[in-house]
Amino acid sequence: MNHDQRKDWDTYFMDIAYMVSTRSRCDRRHVGAVLVQGKKLLGTAYNGAPSGVPDCSEAGCMISEEYELVIQDGKETMVKKQRCIRTIHAEQNLLLFTDRIDREGSSVYVTDEPCWTCANMLANSGITEIVFHRPYPKDTDKVRAMLEQVGIRFRRLDTYQPPQETITAVEN
Q1: CA distance 28 to 46
Q2: Residue ranges per domain, the chain?
Q3: How far apart are the two ends of the chain, measured CA to CA in Å?
Q4: Residue 164 CB-half CA count within 13 A
Q5: CB neighbours of residue 38 within 10 Å
Q6: What is the C-alpha to C-alpha distance for residues 65 and 21, in angstroms, rounded to an integer?
Q7: Strand, helix or coil for residue 20
Q8: What pTM, to 2 d.p., does this model score?
Q9: Residue 66 catalytic?
Q10: Distance between alpha carbon 52 and the CA centroid of its chain, in Å?
Q11: Among residues 86, 146, 84, which one has the least CA distance to residue 114?
């Protein structure tokens, strides 16, 4: 990057979200989120176990198995999914550690597209925009439709390149 060139705001805030994600101790995925009002950073959060509780790197993942009906090649199939329930998602932590007044009219930059539960919570949080990088296709359609209904802008930075030092073997 040329010395005179500055990063655009989307890149700047997404870089911060990725730096925040490096605090995560989750073995499956490191996720970071930041709250921004205008150009002012108001809060950061990452995914992990509740404070004071051993995290996945210490106690192992707390796996919950669920069955999901999936349509593949026009045929309904039951697929077993595993997910860790020890971890509080980055978006949820961001909501827990920021004030409603700061969220009003703000944007959330998050390394990963929010799941349905996080999108639902963000929809009621006062924010007006969600900007993400890595897709989460499982929930995209219903999340996009719901956020459109409530008037929250939802954008993916698909050409964004995260800082190399923030990428772990977990995400590669």
Answers
A1: 13
A2: 9-48+87-156
A3: 24
A4: 0
A5: 9
A6: 25
A7: helix
A8: 0.85
A9: no
A10: 22
A11: 146
Give 39-63 pLDDT, tens digit per residue.
999 999 999 888 888 777 777 666 6
What digits encode the pLDDT tens for the residues 70-123? 777 888 887 777 666 668 899 999 999 999 999 999 999 999 999 999 999 999
Binding-site annotation, residues for Zn(2+): 89, 115, 118
Given the residues 58, 91, 113, 165, the one annotated as active site: 91
Look-up of token digits 């296709």: 137
- Amino acid symbol at 146: M
DSSP string computed for 85-120: -SPBPHHHHHHHTS-HHHHTT-EEEEEE---HHHHH
Question: 42 CB contacts (<8 Å, ≥6 apart)?
Answer: 35, 36, 98, 102, 106
Length of the chain: 172
Q: Which fold has domain 9-48+87-156?
A: Cytidine Deaminase; domain 2 (3.40.140)
Q: Are strands 153-156 and 129-134 parallel, antiparallel or unpaired?
A: parallel
Q: Which two tokens stand for residue 78?
A: 């039951």
Q: Give the other-Cβ count within 10 Å of 75's Cβ.
A: 7
What is the Cα Rg of the chain in Å?
A: 17
